[in-house]
Specification:
The longest helix has 21 residues. The strands form 3 sheets. A 5-stranded parallel β-sheet has the order 1-7-6-2-3, sandwiched between helices. A 5-stranded parallel β-sheet has the order 10-9-8-11-12. It has 12 helices and 12 strands. About 35% of the residues lie in helices and about 15% in strands. Helix 1 packs across helix 12 and helix 6 crosses helix 7. Strand 11, helix 10 and strand 12 form a beta-alpha-beta unit. By secondary structure, it is α/β, with parallel strands linked by helices. The chain starts with a strand and ends with a helix. It is globular, with a radius of gyration of 19 Å. The structure holds N-(3-carboxypropanoyl)-L-norvaline. N-(3-carboxypropanoyl)-L-norvaline binds next to helix 7. The site of N-(3-carboxypropanoyl)-L-norvaline (SN0) has 9 residues, from helix 7.
Length: about 325
């Protein structure tokens, strides 16, 4: 495996889920595979789970992880081509990437959407430069439009907790005080469309996800109707994807607190589990009562981030 960006990169999902089960049961069985191998984890943005679960997954495989926080520990990096570098950016990605990849066997990159230039974000401009100038396998640790390690962990969690062969999974938008990227809902939609589940997306008008990710998923604008009979409720805020109106890209269109997932919302589900990728703003996205209930999966979901990362790194090591 040379890249881990999209669901297609992992191949057959049943095989991947079976491998995840094995990795979870015997995490240290591949300690020799990563011997004398180095993974570099590069962060342009903050992280808690991604950083720690990626390091833990690498250590489980016997690899040496190196973490770099761009702009804090390193020079500030220029990511745009052809610019006069007379500002605060001291080094260009065109040099920084091949230098970093000369020190490692696999590279993971976190680079959030800037949310101002839709084309720049949706072309995955920064991530693609790591492929082009790095020459080593690349993992997206949340880039402009995808967060595949999260979506894979979400699928593993759904597989573990499902009580029906084909559960109903509802992705619901919820309010947030800051404009957030679309990477988490984009990837979640992409993976749920590929999985054997009944998938419904609900959000206020204007929040339509890019069709490349939403695919043929059912979109229901009435949140309560969408949640009826749900087995899994996956809450997430995202800013305007700019599908229907490109000039609104990255903007907050609604702060409607009626969309906060609370007991009244969960009451219409089939005793659904609650999921969120974290970090979560309590009593904005979800009420204390719902996230603190025994049906909340946020902690096991986060724990599965080690499992998803380890399967991906294992596959990459096997193909080096
Ligand atoms: C990120 C996002 O893409 O929504 C990371 C999620 C894994 N979330 C945030 O940036 C939340 C920031 C905040 O202040 O709540």
């Amino acid at each position: 495996m040379k890249t881990f960006f999209n669901v297609g990169d992992i191949g057959d999902l049943d095989t991947a889920l079976e491998e995840a089960k094995q990795v979870k049961a015997t995490p240290y069985a591949w300690k020799k595979l990563g011997e004398n191998r180095t993974i570099m984890l590069v962060f342009f943005n903050s992280s808690l789970r991604t950083r720690l679960s990626s390091q833990k997954a690498a250590l489980n495989l016997g690899m040496n992880p190196i973490v770099l926080n761009i702009g804090q520990d390193s020079w500030k990096l220029e990511t745009q081509m052809g610019v006069v570098m007379d500002g605060d950016k001291s080094e260009h990605l065109k040099e920084a990437i091949p230098v970093m990849t000369s020190y490692c066997d696999i590279i993971g990159v976190r680079s959030f959407a800037g949310l101002s230039d839709r084309e720049y974000d949706y072309n995955e401009t920064v991530l693609k430069q790591f492929v082009e100038y790095g020459g080593k396998p690349v993992i997206s640790l949340e880039s402009a439009t995808v967060h595949p390690c999260q979506a894979f962990a979400d699928l593993i969690t759904i597989e573990e907790y499902r009580r029906k062969r084909r559960p109903k999974v509802v992705l619901t938008w919820a309010p947030h005080p800051k404009a957030l990227p679309q990477a988490v809902p984009d990837s979640f939609a992409q993976w749920m469309n590929a999985a054997d589940v009944e998938f419904v997306i609900t959000h206020p008008h204007g929040y339509e996800l890019d069709p490349a990710f939403a695919g043929s998923a059912r979109v229901e604008y009435d949140q309560m109707k969408a949640l009826e009979g749900a087995d899994f409720v996956y809450a997430k805020n995202w800013s305007c994807p700019g599908v229907t109106n490109p000039s609104q890209y990255g903007k907050i269109l609604s702060m409607d607190m009626g969309w906060t997932v609370d007991d009244a919302h969960m009451a219409v589900t089939d005793n659904a589990y609650f999921m969120h990728c974290l970090p979560v703003r309590r009593n904005m996205i979800v009420s204390d009562s719902v996230i603190d209930a025994p049906t909340s999966l946020v902690i096991p979901e986060a724990a599965n981030r080690v499992v998803s990362a380890q399967v991906v790194m294992k596959r990459m090591l096997e193909s080096l």
